[in-house]
Amino acid sequence: GMSAQLTFYGGAGTVTGANFLLEVGSKKILIDCGIHEREQICDPQNYSAFAYDPKSIDALFITHAHADHIGRVPKLVRDGFCGVIYSTPATKELSAIMFEDALSIMKESSDAQNCGMLYEEADVARALSLWQTREYHEPFNIGDAKAEFLDAGHILGSAMVKFIRKNRIILFTGDLGNSPEPLLNDAESPAGANYLVMESVYGDRTHEDRAMRKARLQEAIEETCARKGVLLIPSFSLERTQILLFEINKIAEGISRQGIPVYLDSPLAIRITETFRRHANIMNPRARKYFRKGDDPFSFPGLILTQDARASKAIHLAPNPKIIIAGAGMSHGGRIQGHEKRYLGDKHTTILFVGYQAPGSLGRRIQDGEKRVQIEGEHITVRARIETVTGYSGHKDRDGLLDFASSAVETLEKVFVTMGEPKSSFFLAQRLKDYLNVEAIVPETGQTFEIEW
């Protein structure tokens, strides 16, 4: 009676769309239910039926509030899921904001591309009514197993899900933070796990070190000042933007002397930053100290928050130099596109990528050096300088992932390497075999494994 089935329905052979099914006895437990993030919101893969019956699922565990982990949750509910959804409190709060934002983007896209809505407001409301929260390290029963959230250090509220049954442990990492981070606690240890289902976004490469990333950001800001140009930063509204604000806050004194405005042009990021302030208690001790002293680390002289579309367009009338932080992080929509359309053709512009750019996204094409891109139906010749700072990644790199898995090496029997481009996943799997002498598998979509659990 120790066997269970583990099936990989999403996040296998690809970075996005995390969706794993753990079946044990009569219980069916899903871990994450994300969208496939590509250029078009109306990607047929997101609209297709689930490969299992949503009505048959007992529980859904959410690791964190990024769209590639939560984006299809309301669709799951729409298609009949009526079990319990579990996450940390911050993840639930952030998910509600993310769903609302996704709905408004979807309304625009579905009208323009005529693909219908993936879900409606009623489905979001229903999902949130099924949602229960648990703090970190608060074990609870799920069938004849116990579940517990551990801090993954990736974004505010992010968790690994640890399931224990008859002293056997399977751990789903979700995304693992690039610890140490300025705001978050380090990802906790997987020690004791028999099975790991782990991410591999940066499984084949390393990041710049911390000091280097801040120096590169400062350099980009100073160059922009010197050239009287525009620094465009396409940024993920959730976590990356808050880290950028925190770091710019630290270099802001020097900038504010020159009076350079920093526009945060993202209503979503502004709302999420408020949520961060509310959940300061789960940040690391260093970040908590700022709040205790009454020093808001997400605010500084020269920071201008633009809420509405008119204020966003007015940024173009403001004199240079200026810094614009706007979503979306991969430029596949959002206000950053309006700024890219306006400024990418100008050789005094620098576009600074601070996060992962998925293959096929507009951000990735610009990053890869495409000289002509189409934005909102217009062809733009790219003359801007293209810079990338990988040190701001929210994910562990090749060495961090190996170190993480190594702390479970005494008990570890099998690692399922997921949520990465194939080359990253296979590279990491090989390293896990070579260095830790552990069986590491890169599952394919739809593949089922029998595990002793």
CA-based gyration radius: 22 Å
Share of β-strand residues: 15-25%
N- and C-termini, Cα separation: 9 Å
Give the integer mean of the pLDDT values: 93
Q: Helix tally?
A: 14
**Spans of at least 5 consecutive residues with low confidence:** none
Largest sheet: 7 strands, mixed
Count of distinct strands: 22
Task: Give helix % range.
Answer: 25-40%
> Looking at the structure, what is the overall shape?
globular
Q: Tell me the strand order in the biggest sheet.
A: 6-5-4-3-2-1-22
The helix/strand class is alpha/beta
Give a written overview of the molecule.
The protein has 453 residues and is α/β, with parallel strands linked by helices. 32% of the residues lie in helices and 23% in strands. It contains 14 helices and 22 strands. It has a seven-stranded mixed β-sheet with strand order 6-5-4-3-2-1-22. The chain has a seven-stranded mixed β-sheet with strand order 7-8-9-10-11-20-21, with helices on one face. Strands 14-13-15-12-16-19 form a six-stranded parallel β-sheet, with helices on both faces. A hairpin with a 2-residue loop joins strand 2 (19-24) and strand 3 (27-31). Helix 6 (210-226) packs across helix 7. The protein starts with a strand and ends with a strand.
